[in-house]
Amino acid sequence: MTASHVAPARELPIPDPKAEVERSVRVERLLLYLKVLRKTGKAFSRNRLGVIGVAILISFVSMALIAQPLHSIDLIQDPNDYMASSDSTQILKGPSGSHLLGTDDKGRDVVSQLFYGTKNSLIVGFAAAALTMIFGSSIGLVAGAYGRAVDEFLMRFTDLFLVIPWLPFAVILASFLPPLNQPSMYKIIIVIGLTSWPPSARIVRSQVLSIRERTFIERSIALGAGKLHIMRRHLLPNVFPLVFANAILAVSSAILSEAFLAFFGIGDPTKITWGMMLYNCYNFGGFASRAYWFVVPPGLCIVLVVLGFTFISYALDEVLNPKLRKR
Amino acid sequence: MQARAVLLRKIVNLVITLWAVWTLNFLLFHMLPGDPTHALLPPRVPHDIAEKMKATFGLDKPLLEQYFISLRTALSGDLGYSWFFKKPVFDIILYRLQYTLLLVGTGTFITMAVGVKLGIIAGTNRGKAKDITIVGSSLAFYAMPAFWLAMIFLMTLAGDLDLFPLHGFRSYTGTSQTLVEEIADRLWHMVLPVLTFVLITLSEFVLMMRSALIDVLTEDYIATARATGLAPNVIVRKHAVPNALIPTVATFAMYIGWAVTGAIMIEIVFSWPGIGSLTWQALIQRDFPVLQGVFLIVAVTMLVANLVADIAYTYIDPRVRL
Predict the structure, then answer these.
(1) What angle is formed at CA A209 by the lines to CA A208 and CA A211, rounded to 5 degrees?
(2) Cα–Cα dist B276/B294, whole Å
């Protein structure tokens, strides 16, 4: 590790001034980030909506995390294990001591499904949001940075995706993904990622366009920086807060989208999500026989999680955007 | 003169996007796995009959030739022939479109009126109980999956309380109805679908109007108006609201995208015979011509709505250049 292995021992280590400066700049930058982060965190924790949002989020994430442990101590059943969890004598029974929220159309415990549903819905939500933001921000970044024909082409491409009716398009896309005729959760994630990036691409692009006009970019170009360098070192760090704020909303809309897709019948029946529960309700008698205990909880979970993410994003907006601060 | 040039460019862009939608549409459906003859013919028919069927629909021709044929027929207003409904696609869509427009049109009208009104109340009472209630409840409805809200309404209001019909757009009593009765009956069937639609789309207008109003209220000319001693409600009504309405128009394009998806879900749950349930049926039946037609119609609607919103924007706000 040390330099003495490489350099002959007699020679004095010559300090490289450039590396020195770079290191100190890096340290400074890190300290600055930390300071901003702490300040933001403090302002955030004073925001009531933000705190409620974080609380909702934490409770759902912990629900997702304890699903497996609870199953291993036999408190809940794994609804994906059809043989073990379904009970033909307990079909669509109301809440009772052994089934706190009753059972579904296959005699499976609703509470257990909620735990596993939370886990799978959150996985889909986070993964799909990450994909959305990667697609959206890279297209927006390239369009904004290169401008002209590239911009024109990419924006037409984005417009095209914006005007296609989302739901049927997503369903058709899903039928292209391998393995064919076999529903799976990863398909849902990819489909949501591939269909919901346009708004974020537009937002990132407009932000890039405004940053591009600032003098420090001009200076950088004058110093001979290439497009890639400017994108990586100047544009990306500057749009990152925006991308982050958008990603939070993307998670909530991905969870909603998953519910829509599952309801449309392209969910994975072996992986219970909130949307899948509602699909089962609607199609297999829970809805028709007015089984409130089965219909209401998954929908309420969706509402709560989406609200939680929305609250967090509002609070972040208020903390980060000085224009919105109360006077 | 310049405005006209920009407008022309926008229209050219619209045509290009439309063509791209059409091409993507064509490619998507022709690469879709699954043989359409399976949907048309009973199982286990002889192979040569399936081939004959393909030839009738021109599915045996090379892809490029099929593309130009379909483009030409589409330009002449012929969107093809439905495999499932056995009718021209254009007629089916036109018929179904009435119902969707009835639902979405009525819903949008109510949403805009109520949303703007609530947004003004929330914006002028920022941070107070009224504001928090309005924003909180419209966000809660935004967070609901449309089909879930529809299901809950059906279970409670139509099912348990028996206040509203369970499905469809009119009742089939067998006895003849007078005109008044028929209108009342149809309105009765519209209440729940429209209510669901309004509730899930409300937040778009409420939040936009609220934040625009808050923004406008910090402008200098409002301070001036205050200094002249105008009554607060006059300032809001006469000076702030007209300007705050401008960005609300711009969200219209985004709102339409949201409304289409919401409307599909609502139509399915309420068995409303519009474009949404048509899409659903076409997807299940693998009725590609109908799906293609729906794609095209929705894309055209959204593109035109965008253009109209753009133009309206410049008319309302002279500061914006097209």
Answers:
(1) 60
(2) 9
Closest Cα of chain B to A220: distance in Å? Answer: 31
Q: What does the alpha-carbon distance between residue B170 and residue B165 come to, in Å, rounded to a whole number?
A: 9
Each residue's pLDDT tens digit, B134-181: 988 998 998 999 899 999 999 888 888 877 887 777 777 667 778 888
**Which tokens hold the place of B306?**
């965008």
CA distance A266 to A283: 13
Within 13 Å of residue B311, how many CA atoms lie on the same side as its CB? Answer: 13
**A103 phi/psi in degrees, rounded to 5:** -130, 165
Look up tokens 């924006």; give the residue.
A155
Q: What b/e string do you get for B144-175 counting C-beta neighbours within 10 Å, with b at 16 or more?
A: bbbbbbbbbbbbeebbeeeebbeeebeeeeee
Q: Is A223 helix (H, G, I), strand (E, B) or coil?
A: coil
Q: Which residues of A touch B295 (CB under 8 A)?
A: 164-165, 168-169
CB-CB neighbors (< 8 A) of A176 in chain B? 31-33
Residue A235 host element (H or E): none
C-beta of residue A114 within 8 angstroms of C-beta of residue A302: no
- Quickly tell me which residue has 């989020």 as its tokens: A57
Residue with the two structure tokens 């892809």: B63
Contact between A250 and A127 under an 8 Å Cβ cutoff? The reply is: no
Q: Record the tokens describing residue B246, joined without a space.
A: 């401008």
Q: In this structure, what token pair is assigned to residue A161?
A: 């995706």
CA distance B168 to chain A (A): 16
pTM beyond 0.90: the answer is: no
- Write the single-letter amino acid at B173: T
- The number of residues in chain A equals 327
- ipTM summary value: 0.82
Query: Which one, of B260, B221, B21, B174, lies nearest residue A160 by Cα?
Result: B21
The DSSP call for residue A109 is: B
